[in-house]
Write a structure and sequence with these properties.
heterotrimer; A mainly alpha (294); B alpha/beta (431); C mainly alpha (292); B: 431 residues; alpha/beta; D-Maltodextrin-Binding Protein, domain 2; 2 domains; 12 strands; globular; C: 292 residues; mainly alpha; MetI-like fold; 70% helix
Chain lengths: 294, 431, 292
């Protein structure tokens, strides 16, 4: 059945998903794209067609460059780190050891916290004057006075990245655990017989086998990084001085705070294109796994 | 072959969950039945609000009030969406910086136009609050609460160090340096949140203390005048952070309250009701804090009002707008019973002049603030300029100010850009 | 031997990293305010108290708040909304999880095993709808939900959350189903099984771990979602936990300890689900380990 000739469109398998997607995608995307071509300032009655002016304005606006830089750096650094750590976590959680089930349950905890809530916990950890991390480091004798983790631009960037990574590890780990668990053990046994050491096994067997899932995890983390907002802003408010501003904030702010819906839509489209470009880059680097041929 | 029973389990979980999840909002009131009012607020003490509503409904059985609430931090943005989407909204909380926007967009209606009797409340209302509720010369609402942005400090720390409350910003600096030399790393804790509107309002309040302004009476910018108080004060703030290093940042007023209560700071500038939060048990240092007139030659500060407002949607329907007026008057006017409750129970400020002399209010306030100083400060309070583009301009200006604080831009650059943008908006939108 | 030490070392490190902040919130909810944020921390100089948890569930005002005389204590009322919001969030998340697993797996099966024209564009179309940031689509989503009369309902959130999660679910499950050796299914077909039977009895059990992964993924995303819960909500009927927690965190009457109690509580449904699910996964991997 799997290799039969071309079937008719399997509508009964796809129907619910298609209905939801079409219903909620065609109109909203069209709406956003359409709006991005008009100057829509809510307190003015007129909505002139301005073509790509919104796009030009957004890209040349005072916040764009820094927010773009911050967002790209944030995404490009956290996504690979998350996937690498998750691979290690997945491997660890598949080996037997006492207390494994506890660690497995615990690993999922960061997943359940909404961004703003994780933010406040991580503020408590990183705070420069009454933070737990500082207290711990002082107690261990590693530093002698508190560090303002959230007060210096570079340190603030570091802190929000650590918090973000913490929230994303659970999902990536589960994904890779699932991927690892279906690898046929016989391949490993054969390799061991041939004398392949652990590193060799990792690079020649494991990684190729889970290439597809790692790619998916990477893409997902890229999307999460590009659209991240709650966690960072509840930790730093975008500060200090703009060091942790993110593009996702401005998509919302342009529309709902600056009341310029045309520009907000344009920025949304720009971000979609950016994300698409990043994803295509990833898929080019890992060919074959993600395309679905007829 | 083991049967995958647990898939059945999940499918069974799905069905009842969907059953619970469904259901539409209760149908609109039947014709001839009670008028239903949609009242939208932000999520502060909903229980108290609902209690006030219940009392109102008992007094007016032919009006049914449905309460909807959104978190304060997202209130404005969600209301923009809600009003733009024309969801039925009749009475809503509104604020001084949003009124011109919403009025220009045609979403709110003036009370004065439909119910001229509202004018009788004008001379019982604090002037800054009145100005905030007025647009194009017409009164749009009655006050929910009104408050000030004041200079607050830890009285005990100052007493222990033989200092008195600072009278101007030079003294704030010298006292801070003295405290710093004595071991306090950052005597001034500042609510540094470029993404919040009050980051700008607090700055304006401090400028008013100096006797300065950011815009003149014709709405022309004076903030970029190098000899003006606004310019000088942003410079003061930049120096405080980058040169003297006496300043610590917190990203929200709630964290400032916590920070002050660790005893590591002496001064701050915040909404006045935060003083009540700082001074109430079980805060570790409850009782040690007080306010003092805003440092500077004038001693004035910023005052603002949040108020009940009728929407244009409600105004279109006679039954709804009559009900809306009864509701707004009961909550924001009358004998000010509701405003008094907020003041006594939660420390919220008020716009109603009679309440300043109310003994219950004074007794309640005396537990966390020096009532005489509060009254004196309120007398000097000024409202901010709020044209239609204020909100949008503020969104633009605040990140620039934030940069100036940390030395990422010069004060001149920031002020010039701010003035230029203001003029740009004024040209586009001003009449 | 060295290997065992390394394993336990990393396990402990992982435990501290993942659970550390959570333990912090638990501790933060029971240490009295007076010593909670002192520098340096003096947590154990006062007795722990469960009064915040009691307040959240029963409304009994913690002793620490009590004022002398007639003054009313200023306690954040928002905290009392947590239990109901938790239930609402869990209900919505369960529904989202169910829809994802049932319909997502069906769609994935079609993409993995059935050859048909239009597969690639359909697949790409489903995946691509997650490219545009959700914040850019708020207005049209709001208008659609309003037109359906579903503002302020749990159903609206189930629909929107499903939309946010389905593309990933379909992507992941398609990948997984393709990895299952085709011979197993083909031999079942030779034995006379129909496509639905193959799907139900062979494909699903063999991909248990990925079903668990996507199920949990959709639950967690729905449970912690904020933006659409905000704009499509508005009253207790549909108020979810992230909304209540946000109000709590930014409330000036907030007490740090109270917030931490709330935060810790929010984790409980997910913790329960995680434990339940892991038990199933363990059983399944042992069963599945017969082959792999």
């Amino acid at each position: 059945m799997a290799r039969r000739d071309m079937s008719r469109y399997p509508i009964e398998w796809l129907f619910p998903v298609l209905i939801l997607v079409i219903f909620f995608t065609v109109y909203p995307f069209g709406y956003a794209l359409w709006n991005s071509l008009f100057q829509i300032l809510l307190i003015l009655p007129v909505k002139p067609f301005v073509g790509i002016k919104n796009y030009v304005d957004v890209v040349s606006s005072i916040y764009f460059r820094e927010a773009l830089f911050n967002t790209l750096v944030f995404t490009a650094i956290t996504a690979p780190i998350i996937v690498v750590i998750a691979l290690g976590v997945a491997r660890l959680l598949l080996t037997k050891f006492v207390g494994r089930s506890i660690v497995r349950a615990v690993v999922l905890l960061p997943w359940a916290m909404p961004g703003a809530v994780s933010g406040i916990v991580w503020v408590w950890i990183f705070h420069g004057r009454w933070g737990i991390l500082n207290a711990l480091l002082v107690k261990l004798g590693i530093i002698s006075s508190y560090i303002g983790w959230l007060d210096h631009p570079i340190l603030a960037k570091f802190s929000v990245m650590v918090a973000h990574i913490w929230t994303q590890i659970p999902f990536a780990s589960i994904l890779l655990m699932a991927a690892l668990s279906i690898i046929n053990k016989e391949i490993y046994e054969a390799a061991e017989v041939d004398g392949a050491g652990p590193t060799r096994r990792l690079f020649s067997i494991t990684l190729p086998q889970i290439k597809g899932m790692m790619t998916i995890a990477l893409i997902y983390e890229f999307i999460m990084g590009m659209t991240s907002y709650d966690l960072t802003y509840s930790m730093t408010g975008g500060g200090p001085g703009g060091a942790t501003t993110l593009l996702s904030y401005y998509v919302w702010a342009e529309s709902f705070k600056m009341l310029q819906f045309g520009r907000g839509a344009a920025l949304g489209v720009i971000m979609a294109l950016l994300t698409l470009a990043l994803i295509l880059l990833i898929m080019r680097a890992v060919p074959g796994e993600l395309t679905v041929k007829e | 072959m083991t049967k995958p029973k647990w898939y059945l389990l999940f499918a069974l979980l799905l069905l009842p969950a969907l059953a619970f999840a469904g259901g539409q909002k209760g149908g609109a009131a039947a014709a001839g039945g009670p008028v239903s009012l949609e009242f939208v607020v932000w999520s502060y003490n909903i229980k108290t609000i609902q209690d006030n509503i219940n009392q109102f409904q008992m007094a007016y059985p032919d009006i049914k009030v449905n309460l909807t609430d959104y978190p304060w931090t997202q209130y404005h943005d969600t209301m923009v969406l809600r009003l733009k989407g024309k969801t039925q909204t009749d009475v809503m909380y509104n604020g001084e910086d949003w009124l011109p926007e919403f009025a220009a967009a045609g979403w709110v209606a003036s009370l004065e136009d439909y119910f001229p009797e509202v004018k009788k409340y004008k001379d019982k209302t604090a002037s800054y609050a009145l100005a905030d509720m007025t647009y194009s010369g017409k009164l749009y609402g009655l006050s929910y609460y009104a408050d000030l942005i004041t200079f607050q400090y830890n009285k005990k720390i100052l007493d222990d160090n033989g200092m008195t409350a600072p009278a101007d910003w030079d003294e704030v600096l010298s006292e801070s340096l003295k405290l710093k030399a004595g071991g306090m790393e950052y005597p001034f804790v500042y609510e540094y949140a470029a993404n919040l509107p009050n980051f700008y309002s607090a700055f304006a309040s401090q400028v008013y203390g100096r006797g300065g302004s950011l815009f003149d009476d014709n709405l022309n910018p004076v903030l970029n005048d190098p000899n003006g108080e606004a310019f000088k004060h942003l410079q003061w703030l930049q120096d405080a952070k980058t040169k003297h290093d006496i300043m610590a940042f917190e990203s929200h007023e709630t964290k400032v309250v916590v920070a002050m209560n660790t005893g590591q700071h002496a001064f701050t500038v915040m909404y006045n009701y935060d003083l009540a939060s700082m001074n109430k048990r079980p805060q570790p240092l409850a009782g040690q804090f007080d306010m003092t007139p805003m440092p500077g030659a004038d001693g004035a500060c910023l005052g603002f009002a949040k108020f009940y407002c009728m929407t244009a949607q409600a105004a279109e329907n006679e039954a709804r707008r009559n009900a809306a007026w009864k509701f707004i008057e009961a909550f924001g006017g009358g004998d000010y019973k509701v405003a008094k409750r907020w003041a006594v129970e939660d420390g919220l400020g008020f716009a109603a002049l009679p309440l300043f002399d109310d003994p219950d209010v004074q007794a309640a306030f005396a537990t966390w603030i020096d009532v005489d100083k509060f009254k004196a400060q309120a007398k000097l309070a000024r409202n901010d300029a709020n044209p239609e583009w204020k909100g949008m301009w503020s969104e633009f200006f605040r990140p620039l100010m934030a940069k100036a604080f940390v030395g990422g831009a010069t004060v001149k650059e920031v002020m010039d850009q701010g003035a230029a943008k203001w003029n740009e908006y004024k040209k586009l939108l001003g009449q | 031997m060295g290997k065992k030490i390394a394993i336990y070392f990393f396990a402990i490190l992982l435990f501290i990293f993942s659970a550390g902040p959570v333990i912090l919130t638990f501790v933060g909810g029971i240490i009295p305010e007076k010593v909670l944020l002192s520098v340096p921390p003096r947590w154990f100089s006062m007795k722990p108290t469960f009064s915040y948890y009691r307040y959240i569930f029963t409304g009994k005002i913690p002793e620490a708040f009590e004022e002398r005389g007639a003054e009313r204590a200023m306690v954040s009322e928002e905290a009392r909304l947590i239990p109901k919001a938790m239930l609402t969030s869990a209900t919505i998340a369960l529904a989202v999880m169910g829809v994802n697993m049932v319909f997502g797996s069906m769609a994935a099966y079609a993409f993995a095993r059935i050859r048909f024209r239009g597969k690639s564009p359909t697949f790409m179309g489903i995946i691509m709808c997650r490219l545009v940031p959700a914040s850019a689509l708020v207005v049209p989503f709001y208008l659609i939900i309003q037109a359906l009369g579903l503002l302020d309902t749990k159903l609206a959130l189930v629909m929107v959350h499903t939309l946010l999660t389905l593309p990933f679910t379909v992507l992941i499950l398609t990948m997984f189903f393709r990895k299952i050796p085709v011979e197993i299914e083909e031999s079942a077909v030779v034995d006379g099984a129909k496509p639905l039977q193959v799907f139900w009895k062979i494909t699903l059990p063999l991909s248990a771990s990925s079903m668990v992964a996507t199920g949990l993924f959709s639950f967690m995303l729905s449970y912690s979602e904020f933006m659409y819960s905000l704009v499509l909500g508005g009253s207790e009927r549909s108020r979810t936990l992230p909304i209540v927690m946000t109000s709590l965190i930014y409330n000036p009457d907030m007490i740090w300890g109270m917030i931490m109690s709330g935060v810790f509580l929010t984790l409980i449904p997910s913790l329960i689900l995680a434990i339940l699910v892991w038990k199933l996964v363990v059983e399944n991997i042992i069963l599945g380990a017969m082959k792999y």
